[in-house]
Amino acid sequence: LEKYPDLHPLTPEGEIAERILRKLRSQGTRLPLVVASAEEGAFRVSVAYWVGGGKVEAVSTYDDLERCLQAWDGSVPDLRLWREAHERGLQEARNEVAVRREQVERRWQEGLRRQVEAARYRLERELLRLLCAVDGRRDPNMVWHELMREAGERARWLQEAAQRLGYPYRWTAEQVSEARQWVQAQPVQRQETLRLGSSLQAALQDPRWKSRQPAQASEAITAAGD
């Protein structure tokens, strides 16, 4: 199509197919060209078959259609074969719609999973930095446990983090070491800000956590289409 801009693809919903159907309708109410469609939300698939010569054959390209038209003698197709073609096309279209929706859903779910993983990683990092800023010498889980028993907003944020990540959390020795070094490299004012927990609060409010809501995701998939 890029090489020949005057060419147009043949699709069941396209203008070329519509013009051909209008031409064929003048020959009778039951046409040899059978187009069956299936639709679900934004997903739509059409399948074309030609009924003639005592058989049913798929029409996938313009060459297929032109060949069938050239061979057609103008007779009305057999009713049994016409119904068979329509049912076959309808089933094929429905199957293709289901396949496309499943493909989009898998890609969508993978994207949502990555969003949640990114939000979780951020929460893990900010929580560990906070705990190391409060007391960089002791086990972070011990510090976490003590801070959750205090009053105030920070304790509530720490409790919420425990609900999302699980307590105690299994940080590796390398993660703890890196967090301690990072905190020590920060200015005193920045370390004090870390202790207050604002970075932890921001990680808990990360909009990517909303990707965990399956109902909204399913609705979005249906609306997205292909």
Structural class: mainly alpha
Helix content: 55-70%
| Cα-atom radius of gyration | 31 Å
The overall pLDDT, averaged over residues, is 86
> Quick one: overall form?
rod-shaped
Number of strands: 3
Low-confidence stretches: none
Tell me about the largest β-sheet: 3 strands, antiparallel
Portion of residues in beta strands equals 5-15%
What does it look like?
The protein is mainly alpha-helical. Helix content is 61%, strand content 10%. The protein contains 9 helices and 3 strands. The protein has a 3-stranded antiparallel beta sheet with strand order 1-2-3. A hairpin with a 2-residue loop joins strand 2 and strand 3. Helix 3 runs antiparallel to helix 8. The longest helix has 56 residues. The chain is rod-shaped. It starts with 14 loop residues before the first helix and ends with a helix. The model has no long low-confidence stretch (mean pLDDT 86).
